[in-house]
Amino acid sequence: MAKEKVNGNGNAQKEYTASSINVLKGLEAVRKRPAMYIGDVGLRGLHHLINEVVDNSIDEALAGYNDRVIVTIHKDQSVSVEDRGRGIPVDIHPVEKKSALEIVLTVLHAGGKFDKDSYKVSGGLHGVGVSVVNALSEWCKVEVKRDGKIYFQEYHQGVPKAPVKQIGTYKSDHTGTKVTFKPDREIFKATKFNFETVAERMRELAYLNKEVTMTLKDEEEGLEESYRFKGGLIDFVKYLDENRSPIHKPIYIEGERENTPVEIAFEYSDSYSENVHSYVNNINTIEGGTHLVGFRTALTRTFNNYAYKNGLIKENNKITLSGDDFKEGLTAVISIKVMEPQFEGQTKTKLGNGEVKSVVEMLVGEKLSEFLEENAPVAKKIIDKCMRAAEAREAARKARELVRRKNALDSMHLPGKLADCSINDPEHCEVYIVEGDSAGGSAKQGRDRRFQAILPIKGKILNVEKAKINKVLENQEIQAMISAIGAGIGEEFDPAKSRYGKIILMTDADVDGSHIRTLLLTFFYRHMKDLIAEGKIYIAQPPLYKIKKGKEEFYAFDDEERDKILKRIKADVKGKKEEEETVGTEEAAASAEGTTQTKGILISRYKGLGEMNPEQLWSTTMNPETRTVLQVNLESAAAADKIFETLMGDAVEPRREFIEKHAKYANLDI
Ligand code: 0RA
What we know:
Elements: H1 11-32, H2 34-38, H3 43-62, E1 68-73, E2 79-83, H4 100-106, H5 130-135, E3 137-146, E4 149-156, E5 159-160, E6 165-169, E7 176-183, H6 195-208, E8 213-218, E9 223-227, H7 233-240, E10 251-257, E11 260-268, E12 275-280, E13 283-284, E14 288-289, H8 290-309, E15 330-336, E16 343-344, E17 350-351, H9 355-374, H10 376-405, E18 430-435, H11 437-446, E19 452-457, H12 469-474, H13 476-485, E20 502-506, H14 511-527, H15 529-533, E21 537-540, E22 545-549, E23 552-556, H16 559-576, H17 585-590, E24 596-598, E25 601-605, H18 614-622, E26 629-631, H19 637-648, H20 652-661
Parallel strand pairs: 1-8, 12-15, 14-17, 18-19, 18-20, 20-21
Antiparallel strand pairs: 1-2, 2-7, 3-4, 3-7, 4-5, 4-6, 8-9, 10-11, 11-15, 12-13, 16-17, 21-26, 22-23, 22-25, 24-25
Helix pairs in contact: 3-6, 8-9, 11-18
The structure holds 3-[3-(1H-pyrrolo[2,3-b]pyridin-5-yl)phenyl]propanoic acid.
Residues 53, 56-57, 60, 83, 85-86, 88-89, 104, 112, 114-115, 130, 177, 179 line the site of 3-[3-(1H-pyrrolo[2,3-b]pyridin-5-yl)phenyl]propanoic acid.
């Protein structure tokens, strides 16, 4: 935006033209490299468009002006996001000679940035501005209610069709903004919104902003859900621990220091895993950061102080409670607001602001000591639990020592069944963790041995969700994975030491296969989470069907693709031999259970990886030039926790319900 003042001799007109050109350049840049702004142009990027607008509505709530967000997915897969904020300003910008509304919608990074004192979002993928959503939409319409009037503007691929105009007045007592956009099919590979994906983020935002009601409607699917959690983070923690057994009621800490509001809820359950989720300005800081460090430091110090002061730990006792002892069974949500957050780390989700550590540490220290003084029985329960964790940690250390003596965990002594690759630059190496020895054999023969390693594992590995750490460490298959990956385990785990840049899970495309995959993911999630956070864990996608017509072979990865291929073959054959009848899709569907031959077309359904010969496995599933692999991400870590807790935990009924609801849980996207 130009900074000069209008000087009355026609410069304003020039500025207008210059800024219009800049706007066009800006929009063009976004349309040319959409991934730079929204991550990708697949499903994730598509859903990011909604998140971007919703985040803006939530920013209004943070500023204290909004208590309602309604998202509607329309039948044509356009989306409306409506809020009761102040409404995007519409006054004419003195230099640009355009409505502020037009500037917000067309100029990159012009979002809420007039508002100097807001907890705005910066860095990461969030906070790119509504203008990016507009630029990537075939069309977009904005309606603003402000000062008793309704204003409107419409855009095509980000370019305004006409200046902002007033289209009416309104009587209701609230101002607000409604943005409706239709993602551009020229840009996006995926165009259908997924209710659950949108719902997950909205539920999360409702927990984080307890005064806001979030409503999601899907007119295509006929679904509607509303979220409003008066208990905020306390409700969030209860939800996360729904299937665990908490040993006390959630502890809630709220306060503000140096313009930094801090809100924390946490509780301990009788489980072994730790579930800590942290947010800065409503953004999930998956990699943690200074706020989390401050919280942990305060937690450890305050409990230790209390324990010594009240004689719960004797000075001469050998046990000292370390930070790790306070992790076991801890479920916590930390949400803070920072004026100018600095995001660092691999995925720009690690808070870097140094001053935040002491802000959180001091606030938690003060409020938690107060709480413990007033709630002695709770304090005692938690400290008892942590002392047991300390004892278990000592036992685990001994177990690790024992196992280590047998050299089973370090990468100096690689497991016998690992077929390693020949180059050793982790960035270019990958390891396939393969279910079963026979598939492992095919993979070993089919691979490119320069950069692909194969580790076959036997059947169902241990369910780590239910096992104590020493049992986990004694498990042979888990030992093999730990030493092959070479990044250590427990306190010594260091993702930077991973011997492979990609760890690819390859299991059969049946129920057992998906169970084994879930067990493997649970292990990585609970014990090597950073590998997931860094995007190093992948799921191989072997084909489901082979379709053979004469000498030609085709592979289909799902039913839809199979039907497409059959149609194509059918059309081909028709072209050649008009009068002869060929196979139809109904017949194909009927054949899905095995190998069927109909008029020269052979359809086989792969039941297991072992049925493929090495060449087939290579060309369909392992060749980096042609394969697809799904990257496992932690975008919604809270949802992932919930899934593992439900699938792998003790409670049976919620698991049954979950599996019934997600019958195809083979495709879990955690
Ligand atoms: C710029 C300035 C202000 C608010 C907004 C933009 C705003 C953007 C969006 C996007 C969706 N809903 C929104 N609501 C508001 C500050 C307004 C003021 O100072 O009055």
